[in-house]
Each structure stands twice: as structure tokens, then as C-alpha cells.
Write a structure and sequence with these properties.
Layout (H helix, E strand, L loop, with lengths): L1 E5 L5 H9 L5 E5 L3 H7 L3 E4 L25 E4 L1 H9 L3 E17 L12 E14 L5 E5 L7 E4 L4 E4 L11 H11 L8 H16 L4 E5 L3 H14 L3 E7 L7 H10 L4 E6 L1 H8 L5 H23 L4 E3 L4 H7 L4 H10 L10 E3 L7 H10 L4 H4 L19 H20 L8 E15 L2 E14 L7 E2 L4 H14 L3 E6 L13
Helix pairs in contact: 5-6, 5-12, 6-12, 8-9, 10-11, 14-15
The structure holds xanthosine-5'-monophosphate.
Xanthosine-5'-monophosphate (XMP) binds next to α11.
Length: 504
């Protein structure tokens, strides 16, 4: 295992990922707990970048003993400067702050740069720089503005780079991580199946005969978390799946069917009518969100009261959620985001988050290992409030059915054309527009459905996808022919910003 000690840098999530790409297990821990580092017995340690300056009064620096553990260490950016400072080198404000692509030149021979081009482009983002290296260190790379772009004490296997090898813009970055993994002597035998087996064993040892509760949404993260727990504790796990009636067509039945195949207690609550009653007459999207979120809590509360006290509550938090909410606070943020603060009223001792260290595609891989079907594993993101926010204006049972049918047709056509793999998210929404149409010989005055499809990797910004025209026109034709009450189909060409991905 390689341990990443996190000093708060924006690219830290990528470091763990680069290590795992080399089939080596990697965990990220916040800086500050040296006893924990020793306890984890890592084969290598990476000190990340971070926003602080090593000279700031309250900057967090690793203790000198860390470098005496005999474990190879790679310091990146702030991590490099921290290594220099703690071991007796000096760090100063850079003459020129370097941001972006810079040419790095390798000086002399270094195992860390084995097979790396002598001159290559690397990503820089720093305001301080190492001025003088500690005793026994040599400079192994430089840039025009940064004489110490890399340094090392090869005998002690201590390495430091000022640039960011984890970022794709650093052309030789992957090679550098691969070399570091070799320096650490890691066996490169970690696979997703080992993650699954290790996690199940760890959960079994931790939870023993304790009772576990999981709020299952049917999304990828909570499904994978639930199955991991089911493998570890079987019937001591209870999954509660609240069907708020605002799911996609057939989704509730599909989820129930999939989970009936696993060893766990599965409780499905059909609460569609309750939600519709609460939503009657409500048109404002934020109000709808609040109502759906609150009602979700009420339903979950009622069910969990029947279950009684549990020892653990499972959350499908994944690494990007941890980053989004700041390390250590993820549980709270995630529950607010999806199910509105469940931990506040459920009587439990501890939260378990078995996917905390994984990225979305790694979670999907774990899901496959666990035997979840592709339609769950590849599920696109779906908002907690569901179709309630994909219907503009008042939500009624008729409108839900209409948008479900239109959406199912659209998804079917997208999948048939094989373009689903290229899209981050795609769905149908129901506008509150009615307009005149002609069907047969008669006049209609019916609804307009909007189709949306976006490309994005972070969901913070997105662009409208250029779906092939024949796919759009086939979907539009089928929707007006097969879905009663629709006589017009529109395609949303707007990017985010200024629009959002959801159509609410
Ligand atoms: P927007 O519409 O804000 O959506 O551009 C960005 C991404 O977030 C999803 N989304 C939600 N996910 N609960 C969720 O779990 C929500 O309340 C929620 N609202 C939006 C949306 O589907 C898109 O992927």
C-alpha cells in the first residue's frame, strides 16, 4: 500500500488514482496523524501539494521522523517544499510564480526519472520554490524559473518534485508514478477484486454481528455499497428503498428485482401517492425539492423507527464527494445532498463508507466484481428529487407517466444507436408549454417534451451533445406517436453555464 498524505491540494484525488493505475493499493489520509502513518505500514508515502506556505505560522509540516522510517517518500509541490524545510533546506517565494505548462529538464540520472525524456512538458502551480536543498540531496531537474524542480536523496529514497506529475498535462507523469512504485518495491498485484475481498473482510471484522441500515436509491454508489455490506454481514443488513413515484420508467421494479438476488433484508416503500399529495399545486422548483427531500426523511424515519436502533448506517460516499465537502465532513454533506440529513434521526453508532477512496469508474468496476448487472453499474446520474424536477410546473400522476414514457423511448433510441457511452447524462423533461399541432385531420393542443444530452466530466460545467440527427428525429417521431398528450419535441442546445444540466 502506498499512503498519500494530504496537505489540501486540488489535484490530490488524482494522485491516488495514478498509484492504483499501477495496480498498487493506495489510501489518502489527512496530514497530521503520524502514529496512524506508522500503524498503516505503507510501502511508500506521497506528500501532496497544498495551498499553504511552509513558512506560514500554522502551516502543517510532517515530523522529521517520517523521513527516518526507511520508507520511500515522494513530495509533490508543497510536499516537496515541506520535505526541503523539515530536512534543513530552504524555501523562498518564487521570483516568478509558475502556473501552467513548463518545460522541465532532467539533470543527471535518477531512478524516479528512468525512461523519462530529458526535456518534457510538466504542469506547474506554485508561488514558493525550493531555494537550497537539504544535506545529501542533489538537484535532479530544473525549469527556466525554478532551479530546483526536483531533488532527491537516492540513498534514503527521498524524492521531491515541484511540478505535478499526477496531472495529464505532465507528459511523463505516469512514468514517474510507475518508477516510484518500483522504488517502493510494490508487487503490483492489487486489483478491484482484491479491493472487494479486502473490504468485505474488513467490514466483517469491524461489524461482526452488528445491525446495519442502508438507504438505497438504486444509483450506482448506494447499490455497490449495499452489496459490499451484504457480502460482509448478510441478513444483518437492512436496505430501505423509498419509491417516491418519481423514478424513471420501470426503475423501482428493476431495483427490487436486482436486490432480491442478494443476501439482505430489502424493504421497498411505495410512497408515490404521498409525494404526489404533498406536491399538489406546487410549481416552484426549489419548493418541490424541499418538499420531496422532507417527505423522503419522513418516510425513512417511519421505517427506521420500526427497525429500531442499528449499529451502523451505510453511505455510498465516493472520493469526489469527499473532496467536494472537505475531508472528514463528507458524510454530512452527502446525506444532505441526497437524502436530507438521515443521520440526525436514525439511532446509530457509526457511519460506514466503504467507497470513500474510489472514483466513479472504480465504483462501477467494483459493482461488476460484485455481480451487479450492467444496467445498475452503468446507470447515469439521477437527481434525488427525480422526475419531480424534470416536470416544469405542477407535478401530477399523468405528467409523471408522460415524462417516464418519453424518457424511456429517448433512452432506448440513444442506446440502440450506441451513443450512450459518449454521453454523461441524457433524459427527457416535460415543459409547461402547450401548443397547436395537427394529427390525422384533427387539431391538437398538447404538451412539448424537451430532450437533453450533455457532455461533461465534472458536472459543474457541461456542453450540449451533438446527437446524430437521425437518432433525435427517430426519438421525436416515436415520442409524438407513442406518448399520448405530446405533439412537439424540442432539443436543448444550451451549455452549462448559463443553463444547468437538469431542466427544472
Ligand atoms: P445541475 O442541474 O445543477 O446538475 O447542472 C448537476 C448534476 O447534479 C445532479 N443533480 C442532483 N443529484 N441530488 C442529486 O443526487 C439532487 O438534488 C440533484 N440535483 C441535480 C444532476 O442530475 C446533474 O448530474
Amino acid at each position: 500500500m502506498i499512503l498519500v498524505i494530504d496537505f489540501g491540494g486540488q489535484y490530490n484525488q488524482l494522485i491516488a488514482r495514478r498509484v492504483r493505475e499501477n495496480n498498487v493499493y493506495c489510501e489518502v489520509h489527512t496530514a497530521g496523524n503520524f502514529d496512524k502513518v506508522r500503524e498503516l505500514k505503507p510501502e511508500g508515502i506521497i506528500l501532496t501539494g497544498g495551498p499553504q506556505s511552509v513558512y506560514a505560522k500554522d502551516s502543517s509540516l510532517p515530523p522529521a521522523e517520517l523521513f527516518d522510517m526507511g520508507v520511500p517518500i515522494l513530495g509533490i509541490c508543497y510536499g516537496a517544499q515541506a520535505m526541503a524545510k523539515v530536512l534543513g533546506g530552504t524555501v523562498e517565494p518564487a521570483r516568478v510564480s509558475e502556473y501552467g505548462k513548463t518545460t522541465v529538464e532532467i539533470i543527471g540520472a535518477s531512478r524516479l526519472f528512468d525512461g523519462v525524456e530529458k526535456k518534457s512538458v510538466a504542469w506547474m502551480s506554485h508561488t514558493d520554490r525550493i531555494f537550497s536543498v537539504p544535506e545529501n540531496f542533489t538537484v535532479t531537474a530544473s525549469t527556466a524559473d525554478c532551479p530546483v524542480a526536483a531533488m532527491e536523496d537516492a540513498a534514503r529514497k527521498l524524492y521531491a518534485v515541484q511540478f505535478h506529475p499526477e496531472v495529464v498535462h505532465t507528459v511523463e507523469g505516469k512514468k514517474i508514478f510507475s518508477n516510484f512504485v518500483d522504488i517502493c518495491g510494490c508487487k503490483r498485484d492489487w486489483k478491484m477484486s482484491s479491493f472487494v475481498a479486502d473490504t468485505v473482510a474488513r467490514l466483517k471484522a469491524k461489524i461482526g454481528g452488528g445491525k446495519v441500515l442502508c438507504a438505497l436509491s438504486g444509483g450506482v454508489d448506494s447499490s455497490v455499497a449495499a452489496v459490499l455490506l451484504s457480502k460482509a454481514v448478510g441478513k444483518n443488513l437492512t436496505c430501505v428503498f423509498v419509491d417516491h413515484g418519481l423514478l424513471r420508467k420501470n426503475e423501482a421494479a428493476e431495483v427490487a428485482e436486482v436486490f432480491s438476488g442478494f443476501d439482505l433484508n430489502f424493504i421497498k416503500v411505495d410512497a408515490g401517492e404521498r409525494f404526489l399529495n404533498k406536491l399538489r399545486g406546487v410549481v416552484e422548483p426549489e419548493r418541490k425539492r424541499k418538499i420531496i427531500g422532507e417527505e423522503f426523511i419522513r418516510v425513512f424515519e417511519e421505517v427506521s423507527k420500526k427497525i429500531g436502533a442499528v449499529d451502523y448506517l451505510v453511505q455510498g460516499t465516493i472520493y469526489p464527494d469527499v473532496i467536494e465537502s472537505g475531508l472528514g465532513k463528507s458524510a454530512v454533506i452527502k446525506s444532505h445532498h441526497n437524502v436530507g440529513g438521515l443521520p440526525d434521526f436514525v439511532d446509530f453508532k457509526e457511519i460506514v463508507e466503504p467507497l470513500r477512496m474510489l472514483f466513479k469508474d472504480e465504483v462501477r468496476q467494483a459493482g461488476r466484481e460484485l455481480g451487479l448487472p450492467e444496467h445498475i453499474v452503468n446507470r447515469q446520474p439521477f437527481p434525488g428529487p427525480g422526475l419531480g424536477i424534470r416536470i416544469i410546473g405542477e407535478v401530477t400522476a399523468e405528467k409523471v407517466a408522460l415524462v417516464q414514457d418519453a424518457d424511456a423511448i429517448y433512452r432506448e433510441e440513444i442506446a440502440r444507436a450506441g451513443v450512450d457511452k459518449d454521453l454523461a447524462q441524457y433524459f427527457a423533461a416535460l415543459t409547461n408549454m402547450r401548443s397547436v399541432g395537427v394529427m390525422g385531420d384533427g387539431r391538437t393542443y398538447d404538451c412539448a417534451v424537451a430532450l437533453r444530452a450533455v457532455l461533461t466530466s465534472d458536472f459543474m460545467t457541461a456542453e450540449a451533445a451533438q446527437i446524430p440527427w437521425e437518432v433525435l428525429s427517430r426519438a421525436a417521431n416515436r415520442i409524438v406517436n407513442e406518448v399520448k398528450g405530446v405533439n412537439r419535441v424540442l432539443y436543448d442546445c444550451t451549455s452549462k453555464p448559463p443553463a444547468t444540466i437538469e431542466f427544472e
